[in-house]
Specification:
Largest sheet: 12 strands, antiparallel, barrel
CATH architecture: Beta Barrel
CATH class: Mainly Beta
CATH topology: Porin
Helix content: under 10%
Distance between the termini: 11 Å
Strand content: over 45%
Number of strands: 12
CATH superfamily: monomeric porin ompg
Length: 241
Amino acid sequence: MKRLIIAFCLLTACVTAMAEPGYYLVTVYDNKGERSIDYRYWTVKFPGQDETIWPELGLGYGVTTRWYTEFFVSYIGSSKSDLKLDTWNWQNDYQITQGQYPFDVAIHTNVARAHDSGEGYALEIGPVFQTDVGRVQLNGNLFLERNYHAASAIENQLKYQWQAKYRWKPLLQVGVLGFGELAECRNGCPRDKQSHRAGPAFFGSYAIDSSITIKYQLAYLTGSIYGMHGNMLTLRLQTVF
């Protein structure tokens, strides 16, 4: 319990000092027995419009060498003063391979339940790929998101993630990160149904002691968001213990 309190205080201090947006890439890793307090904060900004922010706070646990699970809540708003609860989420990542091939594969799932019951829920599922070329880590993910609304309407969306990261030092690693979405397109897929954005990213970790580590991911992405030019500044902070 004492370690949990210390970890939470450290994370809160980092968030206060680095109140920047965060979105993150799903990766393949073995973290059996590790617990984490996970803070994500990401924004979307269109020219001439107010910024939209999505803070998220979660608790994660490495159940086995292959299975990672996390429960988190997501908020939405145009400023810190008007945030409202958006979704409840349960994420599970299961690692299929563990080094026996040139690349590792995992299956990612996330079930999101809208706080407003009338908005229904969503299931996100798909493969996660990771490989190393020297000191460069390469990632590529492809997810299908299926939204179920209370009115029985079903919507599908294809989402992709990619990353190239150079492992320079534990405290600072640099790379390029990209995200995209394709809404359900039965007769082609016009630009207003697509999103493609990418930009520079920074990563790192710092060990407070032998039992507590702070990890961060920071990126600035730009590109199209459903046919409109937009920018995204992203941050993820984890206290692992």
